[in-house]
Structures are given as C-alpha cells and as structure tokens.
TrEMBL record:
<dbReference type="Pfam" id="PF00342">
    <property type="entry name" value="PGI"/>
</dbReference>
<feature type="active site">
    <location>
        <position position="455"/>
    </location>
</feature>
<dbReference type="InterPro" id="IPR001672">
    <property type="entry name" value="G6P_Isomerase"/>
</dbReference>
<feature type="region of interest" description="Disordered">
    <location>
        <begin position="510"/>
        <end position="529"/>
    </location>
</feature>
<keyword id="KW-0324">Glycolysis</keyword>
<feature type="compositionally biased region" description="Basic and acidic residues">
    <location>
        <begin position="511"/>
        <end position="523"/>
    </location>
</feature>
<protein>
    <recommendedName>
        <fullName>Glucose-6-phosphate isomerase</fullName>
        <ecNumber>5.3.1.9</ecNumber>
    </recommendedName>
</protein>
<dbReference type="InterPro" id="IPR046348">
    <property type="entry name" value="SIS_dom_sf"/>
</dbReference>
<dbReference type="GO" id="GO:0004347">
    <property type="term" value="F:glucose-6-phosphate isomerase activity"/>
</dbReference>
<comment type="pathway">
    <text>Carbohydrate degradation; glycolysis; D-glyceraldehyde 3-phosphate and glycerone phosphate from D-glucose: step 2/4.</text>
</comment>
<dbReference type="InterPro" id="IPR018189">
    <property type="entry name" value="Phosphoglucose_isomerase_CS"/>
</dbReference>
<feature type="active site">
    <location>
        <position position="351"/>
    </location>
</feature>
<keyword id="KW-0312">Gluconeogenesis</keyword>
<feature type="active site" description="Proton donor">
    <location>
        <position position="322"/>
    </location>
</feature>
<keyword id="KW-0413">Isomerase</keyword>
<keyword id="KW-0963">Cytoplasm</keyword>
<comment type="pathway">
    <text>Carbohydrate biosynthesis; gluconeogenesis.</text>
</comment>
Amino acid sequence: MTERELWERYQRHLCVVPSVGLTLDISRMNFGADFLDRMRARTDAAFQAMEALEKGAIANPDEKRRVGHYWLRAPELSPEAGLKADITSMQDAVAAFARDVHAGKVKPAKAAKFTQVLLVGIGGSALGPQLVADALGSHRDPMQVHFLDNTDPDGMDRTLGALGERLSETLTVVISKSGGTKETRNGMLETERAYQQRGLDFGAHAVAVTGDGSELDQYAKKHHWLRTFPMWDWVGGRTSLMSAVGLVPARLQGLDVDGFLAGAKDMDAATRVHDVAKNPAALLALMWFHAGGGKGTKDMVILPYKDRLMLMSKYLQQLVMESLGKELSLDGQVVNQGIAVYGNKGSTDQHAYVQQLREGVNNFFVTFVEVLKDRDGKSMAVEGDNTSGDYLLGFLLGTRRALFEKGRESMTLTVQDVSARTVGALIALYERAVGLYASLVNINAYHQPGVEAGKKAAGRVLELQGKLLAKLQTAKTEARSADQLAQDIGAPDEAETVFKLLEHLSANGDHGVKRSGGERPAEARFQAG
Ligand SMILES: O=P(O)(O)OC[C@H]1O[C@H](O)[C@H](O)[C@@H](O)[C@@H]1O
C-alpha cells in the first residue's frame, strides 16, 4: 500500500468520538474490504446482547448475576429505582466522606489531618485505583495514595516502612468485593499490627469497601472502623472502578471524579451506537477478532506514549484476560479463548522488546495510544526547534511505520490529554469492547471459574504445612527427609510440596525449622529446633 493509499484508508476508517475528543485509527490493520460486512450478523447479535445486559438481563449466566457497571455512571439507566438510589447514595456518601476528611472533620486521633491513603486490595480491587492514581495524581493532591496489593511480607514492610511516622495520619482503605481474599486479609492484618505498634487504634483509621455481610464487613463492624462503603454482586471486580472501589480512593486523592464519570458516560453513549463505523468499542472488538481469527492467536500490545498511562496495560491485562480467557463457550463447548495483553509505554519500550515486534515472531498487534497534549505549559527546544514532546510523537509514528513496513498490524487511539474525563472514557471504551468481543466469540466475559483452582490448591498446601509443623513439633530431636516427613503425615505423594514447604520454613525463623544435610532435595534433613 502506498503512503497515499494509506492516507485515504486512514480517513475512510477513522472513528471520531467528538464528545470525548478521541479517535480510533484502524487503517494499519490488514482487514479486507468485506470483513465488516461478513461480521455483520455476529456484530448485530453482540449489540443485542449488550442491550439486554444494560437493561438488566442475567448476562453472567453461570453466577446468575446481572452486570451493571454501565449504570455506575448513568444511574438513571439502571433497571430498578432501588439500584439507582443505591448508586447515587453511594456516590454522595463517598463525596461527603472525602470532604469531611479533607476538612479535618473526620480526623485521626493523634494528628490534625489525614494526609495519606493506604489502599489494601488486589486484582479488580487494586488495579483500577492504581491506574487512576498514577494517571491523574500529582504532588499537589490533598492526599497521597499508597498500595498493598500482595501477601509479600517484604513488600508490606517496604510500604509500611516508607509511611513510617506518617502512619498516624494515614487512612487505610481495605477493598475486597468478596471480603474473603487472603492476600487482602493478610495485608489488612499486618497493617493493623503496624498501627498497634505505634500505639494507634487501627479502627479509627480504617475504612472498608466490601459486600454486605462479608468477612471484611463483619470485621470492620466488630472493630468499629470509621466507615464501610458498599460493593454489589452486580458489579464485577474487574469492572468496579466506578463503584466505591475506585471512587473512595479517587475522591480522597482529590481527583476530578465527576469528570471521570462523565467521560465514561459519554463514551458509553458513543459505544451504544449500532453503526460500527461510529462505534470505537465495536471497531476495537472487531479488530481483535480480525487479528486473532476469533481465536486469540495474536497478543494485544498496549503502547501508550505517555508515562501517566503506563499502568493501562496492567489494568487491561486483568480486564481482557480474566474476561476473555475461558475454557468453555456459552454453549458448553471447549474453546480455550483469550487474548494475551502486555506493554508498558513508549518510547521506553522501543529500547526493550520492540526489536522483536519488528523482526521476530509476528504474533501480536499493537495499540498505540497517542496523547496530543505534551504537558501543562510550554516546552523548551531540545534540538533545533524540536521539543521533547515532538520526539515522543516522532518515535510513535516512526515505530508505527517501521512495524507496518514489516507487515505488523497496529491501531492508534488518539486522545487530547490525560485528564479524568479521558481516563474515564478509555476505561469505558475497553469495558465495552471486551463485552462485545465476548459476544463475538460466544463466551461469558463476566465470571472467572479458573481463578478458584489456584486458590483451592493454595489452601491444601497450607493445610499440609499445618500437619507438617505438628509432626515436626512432636518429633523434635530427629532430623528427617522430605520423603520421610511426607510419609509421616500420611501424604507420601506430596513429597515435593512437603520439600518446598520445608525449604521455605527453614529459610525463615518463624517456626524454628532447621535444615541440615546436603543441598539436593534427597540429602536435605529437617527438624524443629
Ligand atoms: O475484591 P476481591 O473479592 O478481594 O477480589 C479480588 C480479585 O480476586 C479474584 O481472584 C478475582 O479473580 C478477581 O476478579 C478479583 O478482582
């Protein structure tokens, strides 16, 4: 294709969304002239399913749940007056609470004001807030936000240690839809202890966002936490950014929550349109289908040329992969669907893996995200008349061209700036695209049955450790091998897991387990000291 033909293809297919100042350019995807027509029946079915979902159908059949994240930014569209009232009263309560915190009306016992937020959560209860905080935050915000999103003890020490003295002015927000996620529970308990060690009453510094009656909800009530904000079963974790999950930290950080919700609402309006050429979410979903043949054979590389959007790929990794990575179709056929997502930011990634994108295995398509506004204020010239921002665009366009020359496909999303409105719009765009794509390939995007297997297996590992420790305590003097100990606890087939547990126990002082003998698993001996 000549440059001239590309220019024409660009103009013909450019999807323009004036309400949020966004364009989607699909000209560098190699779909044929008849592709959109061939997909019409499937696309129409996807639109119908989406319409039903928004009207309150059970769009998540396995869990028999409605899927209501679109109502969070347009409560008037929710199918029942009760839901609408729930959403608006949550929004009002969150805004009022943040106002009181900023004004020092809700204040810590031993400091004048809360100045820090510590968010404890994981997956959908952390990734969205992390993206928003990083994309929109600045050192001028009334509160700085920190995160505990794992059960890594050293990670917790690092974050809690950095807060140090400021723990006395830290408001901890524990977020878990289910209220039973172990990583979050552990982070909460360790945080509670850090407060106690400084003579601070944790409850007076803690807020929960969780489902009614969950373990976390009960714990928060029992320990007289400051507040609990609701999570509902009709909001999925990975689409919960516009529920209290995202709004509590964003309001506390002082971000433009109204703009954020308005951007999403405007994007929702644009992506409800049944005219594919005008609907950027439908086009995205169709391009994903084109790229991977509806089977996810090509990975989605997300390349925003903007530092503030670096966490977008991490956020989309969960949204896309947890939604689309499914074994079964809606009819129960084995389909093993999914699309892998990765990326960080440009031009930084050009100095890392873009070499492979240009010359290596052609198993991906890139989505470039271009932000028109370089910075607040003017830029200096760094070479001739060129600014750093001119370079950023130069690298984006240069890489796009270099990829195209080698037959590697890409799309380009262009936005005006990284504002709350834009970020809200981008989130809404991808939420809709994921939902539409799921219909195109006939899967349930709103459950995650595969996640449970790992959690259950981890539970069994910890049970095994309990038995192992009990055994080691009773056989104190004798050093035994992993094989012997596995036999002792009646789990001879679990010798490998037993060895891994012993290796870990002996590397840490918590249970007094000592290792002796050789380096190889069969030579190692263990005993309680
Ligand atoms: O919010 P929570 O209930 O703590 O869940 C946190 C995360 O954990 C689970 O494993 C799910 O796979 C995610 O979809 C969810 O976002």
